[in-house]
């Protein structure tokens, strides 16, 4: 049979260069209008019973090429369960991995995908839950809806939003876990949070990039997490409509959910360096961070990003903008494309199920501190 490599589907991304026997040479397609690339998602058919070696020839030019060492691609035969391939190597700008093909069709991806079709299923399921209101905040450049769920009756305004960077699909798995927890009538954490707060959740801020198979940008090649100081309808309507909705409610707590290419652990980044920083304000963030590390082995505080110097925070990024704009306790949650080394899983690595479990832990700590 002839080997077929295809990425013409929701969130697909790959370019076939050549097939030579059992070796398949590929390139990752750039985000439209941008130099960013790293996300890949493709399927292979016609190779059952063969062990193929894949080479991503342009891996060295990827946005975060320093993240390739120690990374292992994900593979699935049913698109429901994703495991890491046995091993990969990164040499001379090429990422290489092999896999024994046991099914007629298999899929490979940078991380377990969260398709826009699954997103639509999530919207339908959660919109029907008791005590939940759905609204469309606006539309993307491609005309897709920016969905938001509102629930709870408390005075504290909590915003949780994800997938500004569409290739960070673990972020929407986290949101699925958070929404399932918050709509569970038997979950005491959900009951407490819904009494203490009004919670607004945007599961996917970048549906265009998600569907197109982008790593980091929207349909115009714009990095949404550099637009929060001055979003526009022409470049970043996704940010504009969400920030306008935040202006209408105010923000007391905010969690922006992401994935990190290089660091093999979950961690939080705060808002050090904003002009209005005070130690008392920052301590509320640090207290949350410490409590989360105590609450779950899926989180740690030793690894993370460097803190911005005083007065040097980038207010174009949402976490800094919301902390400065509203005085919010604002944070960026980063999850790994690799594994969570402090509590590893040798088969799946960091996974959708563990992303959802971390969401529940984050909500529990939020209920304690809010």
From TrEMBL:
* GO BP term, example: proteolysis
Q: Domain named Peptidase M14: which ranges? A: 112-370
Q: Which domain of life, per UniProt? A: Bacteria
Which GO terms fall under molecular function for this chain's record? metallocarboxypeptidase activity; zinc ion binding
The Swiss-Prot or TrEMBL record lists the needed cofactor(s) as: Zn(2+)
What sections of the sequence does the record tag as coiled-coil?
none
Tell me which residues this entry annotates as catalytic. Answer: 334
Family in the record: Belongs to the peptidase M14 family.
User: Entry's PANTHER family?
Assistant: CYTOSOLIC CARBOXYPEPTIDASE, CYTOSOLIC CARBOXYPEPTIDASE 1
Q: What's this protein's name?
A: Murein tripeptide amidase MpaA
């Amino acid at each position: 049979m002839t080997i077929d490599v295809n990425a013409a589907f929701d969130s697909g991304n790959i370019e076939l260069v050549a097939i030579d026997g059992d070796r398949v040479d590929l390139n990752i397609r750039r985000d439209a209008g941008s130099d960013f690339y790293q996300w890949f998602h493709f399927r292979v058919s016609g190779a059952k019973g063969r062990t193929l070696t894949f080479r991503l020839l342009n891996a060295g030019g990827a946005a975060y090429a320093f993240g390739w060492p120690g990374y292992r691609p994900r593979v699935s035969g049913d698109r429901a369960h994703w495991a890491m391939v046995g091993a990969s190597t990164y040499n001379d700008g090429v990422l290489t991995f092999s896999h024994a093909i046991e099914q007629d069709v298999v899929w490979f991806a940078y991380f377990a995908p969260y398709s826009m079709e699954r997103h639509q299923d999530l919207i339908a399921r959660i919109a029907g839950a008791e005590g939940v209101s759905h609204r469309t905040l606006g539309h993307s450049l491609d005309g897709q809806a920016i969905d938001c769920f509102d629930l709870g009756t408390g005075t504290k305004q909590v915003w949780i939003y994800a997938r500004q960077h569409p290739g960070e699909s673990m972020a929407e798995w986290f949101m699925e876990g958070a929404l399932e927890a918050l709509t569970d009538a038997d979950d005491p954490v959900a009951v407490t949070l819904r009494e203490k707060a009004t919670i607004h959740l945007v599961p996917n801020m970048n549906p265009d990039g998600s569907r197109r198979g982008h790593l980091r940008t929207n349909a115009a090649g714009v990095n949404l997490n550099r637009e929060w100081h001055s979003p526009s309808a022409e470049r970043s309507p996704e940010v504009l409509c969400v920030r306008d909705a935040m202006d209408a409610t105010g923000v007391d707590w905010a969690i922006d959910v992401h994935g990190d290419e290089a660091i093999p652990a979950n961690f939080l980044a705060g808002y050090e360096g904003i002009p209005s920083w005070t130690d008392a304000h920052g301590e509320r963030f640090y207290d949350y961070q410490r409590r989360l590390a105590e609450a779950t082995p899926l989180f740690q505080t030793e690894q993370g990003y460097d803190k911005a110097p005083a007065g040097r925070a980038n207010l174009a990024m949402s976490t800094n903008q919301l902390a400065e704009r509203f005085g919010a306790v604002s944070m960026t949650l980063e999850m790994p494309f690799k594994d969570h080394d402090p509590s590893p899983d040798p088969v799946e690595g960091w996974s959708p199920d563990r992303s959802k479990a971390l969401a529940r832990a984050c909500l529990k700590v939020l209920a304690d501190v809010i």
